[in-house]
Q: What sequence folds into this?
């Protein structure tokens, strides 16, 4: 499997989004995903990013970006203003998990969430060896990590069930970006979900 963006979850997300749809990318970084979606799918895209350098990089990439803190909610956006709201590899850094998921599905028809799976076997092995895991999906040391939540696929699905969220689709990838079909919670390094809620 080749990944033109270097991020296999970006390829999955792009596959799920219809041409011309309205997309909000939360924690958009330098705008790589939105730029790809605009160029290949003709989407109308807006990014939200807190980091000054990333905001400038996104603007240089031609992205319409708003500087903002996701923890304060998405009040600047109207209900159902977007077809898709994307939160890519960011949920584990958010303190108000339920709040951001609710807000995503308030302002969007569908939420797309990707996150590293802490139950991945290599992560478990690191912990059994007495060290916190460091990998491509978890690239930080324990002392400089932005991650404040450590959860697994089963944890996330239990939260979705508790909140009444509907999982439309789930894809789980290994470290090479290949799909994991069996024992996903143990063999999967990264999970990508499409969510909706009962209207």
A:
């Amino acid at each position: 499997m080749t990944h033109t963006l270097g991020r296999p979850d970006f390829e999955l997300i792009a596959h799920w989004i219809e041409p011309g749809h309205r997309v909000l990318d939360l924690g958009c970084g330098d705008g790589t995903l939105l730029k790809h979606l605009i160029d290949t799918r003709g989407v109308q895209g807006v990014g939200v990013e807190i980091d000054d350098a990333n905001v400038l990089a996104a603007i240089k990439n031609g992205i319409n970006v708003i500087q903002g803190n996701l923890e304060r909610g998405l009040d600047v956006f109207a209900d159902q203003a977007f077809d898709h709201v994307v939160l890519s590899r960011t949920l584990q850094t958010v303190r108000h998990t339920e709040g951001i998921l609710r807000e995503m599905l308030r302002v969007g028809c569908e939420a797309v969430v990707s996150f590293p799976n802490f139950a991945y076997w290599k992560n478990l092995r690191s912990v059994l060896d007495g060290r916190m895991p460091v990998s491509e999906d978890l690239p930080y040391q324990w002392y400089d990590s932005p991650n404040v939540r450590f959860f697994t696929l089963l944890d996330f699905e239990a939260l979705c069930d508790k909140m009444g969220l509907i999982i439309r689709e789930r894809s789980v990838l290994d470290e090479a970006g290949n799909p994991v079909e069996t024992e996903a919670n143990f063999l999967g390094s990264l999970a990508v979900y499409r969510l909706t809620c009962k209207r």
User: Anything to note?
Assistant: The first strand starts at residue 22 and ends at 26.
